[in-house]
Amino acid sequence: MGGGGGEETKLPRVDFSGVDPAAPGTGRWAEVRAEVMDAVTTTGVFEAHYPQLTPELRASLFRDAIRPLFSLPVETKRRNTYGPGKPFHGYMGGLPGLDFYESLAIVDGLKPALVHAFADLMWPSAANDTFCELVNGATKRLGDLEGMVRRMILEGLGVVNHHEKMSESTWHLFRMTEYKAPNSEEKVTGYIAHQDTSMLTVVCQNEVNGNEMQTRDGEWVLVKPSPTSLIVNVGNVLRAWTNDRVHAPFHRIMVSGNDTRYTAILFSGPNFMIQAPDELVDENHPPRFRPHDNDDFIRFCVSEEGARHEDKLKAFCGI
């Protein structure tokens, strides 16, 4: 992957004002879909202006829910586990070379009962209404946006007939992350360069930047969303399922300065075999990837063999 030092750039910006997730095709839907398709087939990432997640809700989420979570003792945070077979599903901290990174996650984080169960695990003897209210409010809006974007991509590729079945077999992971301030102007690695193993990823951050995306020509550029924006990027699941019609960008977190960076991220994942539909395979688009299970792919990504490859999807199941 090319060098470069996080030059600032403007990502494609898509305005979702007035686009109703419950009413596909109405209002500005078609216009916004065209912008989404342009972004996901070129950069694979865009800034979504999304006033439905208000700056007030975002500020409260970080101040009153996520920040207190990270002040808990490590042994408490380690209760957030889904077993050794699912290493990316729960608490991550103390990782080699990632001294500034710590995160927790809720599997099926769009379901209020599971958010409540997570809160009870972290604060067994406390009333957790504020935490649950803020997380449920934020994940509902992140989930609405993820569903809209996914539907627009399927519409744009002419395969919207698969949307309902795909949605029924989609689950969501809600991950909350702290990147500690290094208290130095020199940038340090918050998280290493990678492509996501999701379908789509929706990132909400506090006011501290650090998310760097790699352009198609190998340059690293700093992403600076506005206070009313979220970052949406394509993961390798959708790249494989669409037969490489959309781009899954490499990205990394680089932090500097004296302010701690917090993020709230919604990942969508598949409970189905990943295989491009027949409509997306033809003479001009021969099959690019073998059908595969995403959990097997994730295990490959964290294996010694997977670590040797930059494009892990191609190494795992490329044709």
TrEMBL record:
<keyword id="KW-0408">Iron</keyword>
<dbReference type="InterPro" id="IPR005123">
    <property type="entry name" value="Oxoglu/Fe-dep_dioxygenase_dom"/>
</dbReference>
<feature type="domain" description="Fe2OG dioxygenase">
    <location>
        <begin position="170"/>
        <end position="270"/>
    </location>
</feature>
<dbReference type="InterPro" id="IPR044861">
    <property type="entry name" value="IPNS-like_FE2OG_OXY"/>
</dbReference>
<keyword id="KW-0560">Oxidoreductase</keyword>
<dbReference type="Pfam" id="PF03171">
    <property type="entry name" value="2OG-FeII_Oxy"/>
</dbReference>
<protein>
    <recommendedName>
        <fullName>2-oxoglutarate-dependent dioxygenase DAO</fullName>
    </recommendedName>
</protein>
<dbReference type="InterPro" id="IPR027443">
    <property type="entry name" value="IPNS-like_sf"/>
</dbReference>
<comment type="function">
    <text>2-oxoglutarate-dependent dioxygenase essential for auxin catabolism and maintenance of auxin homeostasis in reproductive organs. Catalyzes the irreversible oxidation of indole-3-acetic acid (IAA) to the biologically inactive 2-oxoindole-3-acetic acid (OxIAA).</text>
</comment>
<keyword id="KW-0479">Metal-binding</keyword>
<keyword id="KW-0223">Dioxygenase</keyword>
<dbReference type="GO" id="GO:0051213">
    <property type="term" value="F:dioxygenase activity"/>
</dbReference>
<dbReference type="GO" id="GO:0046872">
    <property type="term" value="F:metal ion binding"/>
</dbReference>
<dbReference type="InterPro" id="IPR050231">
    <property type="entry name" value="Iron_ascorbate_oxido_reductase"/>
</dbReference>
<comment type="similarity">
    <text>Belongs to the iron/ascorbate-dependent oxidoreductase family.</text>
</comment>
